[in-house]
Design brief:
38% strand, conserved putative lor/sdh protein from methanococcus maripaludis s2 fold, mainly beta, 2 domains, Elongation Factor Tu (Ef-tu), domain 3
Length: 182
Amino acid sequence: MIQRLDPVYADFTITESDLGAVQRNMTNRTLAVEVSLPNDNGAAREGKLTFLDNAVQDGTGTVKLRATLNNPDRRFWPGRFAKVRLILNTRRDAVLIPADAPQLSAKGPFVYVVKPDSSAELRPVKLGQPQGDLVVVDQGLKADERVVVTGQLGVTPGGKVRLTSPQSGVKPQGTENLPAKS
């Protein structure tokens, strides 16, 4: 059996419930993928989705896909496991916060927002897709607002908070690739 090393193929599966989102997003353009090795701190390599199987696999409810990526340094090897991230769309000016900031109550997720007078305001939020150590906030927070990241158990609504890092606020991350949440 002969296999190519450059370019190399990354085969992966998605659940049949995600198939509709993939089909919708691939009608107008070729979808991008990011491929990385499980124990490698190197940057993910970008490739393109080049194959979508025409059948859902019996028993597993999954659909096979294939990405093609350049591999001039032989970093990826046929048969080796890899992490594949399929990018359905890109959200510009998305609001991202550290994944540790949101808390969960009986009414859903919330964050403590630090107001200009250094008091805390409990704010319900609607969370979106995770992005590494960050998470997208779909609703409830603006890009210029600061949130409490550590010590939330000691915070009460209206209570004063002590800032330890003035740059720890929420920042728009419009250049990041954020997959759509289906």
